[in-house]
Design a protein that fits this description.
Largest sheet: 9 strands, mixed
Number of strands: 9
Structural class: alpha/beta
Helix content: 25-40%
Pfam families: DUF1152
Distance between the termini: 30 Å
Radius of gyration: 18 Å
Strand order of the largest sheet: 3-4-5-2-1-6-7-9-8
Protein name: DUF1152 domain-containing protein
Length: about 325
């Protein structure tokens, strides 16, 4: 790559050695970080995967690192087909001779999630955290006409923002996907422009089929989808379709039948930001700080939406 045109994100990672790539919105978000994971591993970095988990944590679940945090490994006892993306990813990683632990954060409020992140940083000596958003609704500040699915993203953002001794970034993949949840991408680009003015937008770059980390990302997704056929990820299926050249109303999974999709090349692009600046834009971040459960989070977001003036909807003029 021409050194003068390298996205600033790469330079920001230059001194990072122990990196946690964590899905911030739960579900399959961590899979959106796999191209970065494999690229950084190929450079010799120590990289760990984590995810805000939608799986219920049993009191008997082995390997708790801390309250609200478990280490998922291939030898867990899991019922076939159970919704547990972190487990099936762990199994696939083991087949690739990669470190197979995936750390799962419980779906909780900011205070217990912050405690879990602090425990994992201490446990693994993490120096850098990259929060991965499958989609772009993590950039919604709170007064847009539609926020997408904000709860998990906002909790992860608020918690990691409190970690002052590590580098922190937000990286999104899947521009356009949140249209499925009503998000106007006019707001996404508006937020990116505001962050650029503050020097907090660290550039974007595309994933293409010839890249080995991207091929491994596809292999991982396909292997896990086969193990969880009722829960194929709409986000990652759409991104993979975009990378391999699908366009328009293309449906890779039956889960999207009956809706109109816009699969497009922008879905295959990583968008990178300084996490602290993104967190500063979240209008209800301070109100989230004393939350302990997702019910608390829901009340905070609801109260904010009632108190704020909702801006009108704008669509991209293209």
């Amino acid at each position: 790559m021409l050194s003068g045109l390298t996205p600033p994100f790469f330079a920001a990672l230059e001194d990072s050695h122990r990196i946690l790539i964590a899905g911030m919105g739960g579900g399959f978000d961590v899979f959106c970080g796999l191209p970065l994971y494999f690229a950084l591993r190929a450079e010799g970095r120590d990289v760990v995967l984590g995810n805000l988990s939608f799986t219920s944590f049993s009191p008997l679940m082995p390997r708790p690192v801390a309250p609200s945090l478990i280490e998922v490994t291939p030898d867990l006892l899991v019922q076939p087909g159970e919704y547990f993306p972190e487990y099936y990813l762990s199994r696939w990683l083991a087949t690739q001779k990669e470190p197979s632990s995936v750390y799962a954060f419980q779906k909780v409020g900011v205070q217990p999630l912050l405690h879990a992140y602090r425990a994992l940083i201490h446990h693994l000596k993490i120096d850098t955290i990259i929060l991965i958003d499958g989609g772009t609704d993590a950039l919604m500040r709170g007064d847009e006409i539609d926020l997408g699915t904000p709860h998990e993203d906002a909790v992860s953002l608020a918690a990691v923002n409190e970690l002052k001794d590590v580098k922190r970034f937000v990286v999104s993949l899947g521009f356009g996907i949140d249209r499925f949840h009503g998000v106007s991408h006019w707001n996404v680009l508006e937020a990116t422009a505001e962050l650029a003015r503050d020097g907090a937008y660290l550039g974007s770059f595309s994933l293409t089929p010839d890249m080995r980390p991207v091929q491994l990302y596809r292999d991982a997704c396909e292997a896990v989808f086969e193990q969880m056929p009722r829960h194929v990820s709409i986000v990652n299926s759409s991104i993979l379709g975009a990378i391999w050249g699908e366009y328009g109303n293309h449906h890779a999974t039956e889960r999207t039948r009956g809706s109109e999709l816009w699969i497009n090349p922008l879905m295959a692009q990583y968008w990178c930001y300084e996490l602290g600046a993104v967190a500063e834009c979240l209008q209800y971040r301070e109100a989230l700080m004393n939350t302990f459960t997702m019910s608390d989070v829901d009340r905070v977001i609801g109260a904010h939406r009632e108190a704020v003036t909702i801006r009108p909807r704008f669509e991209l003029p293209i």
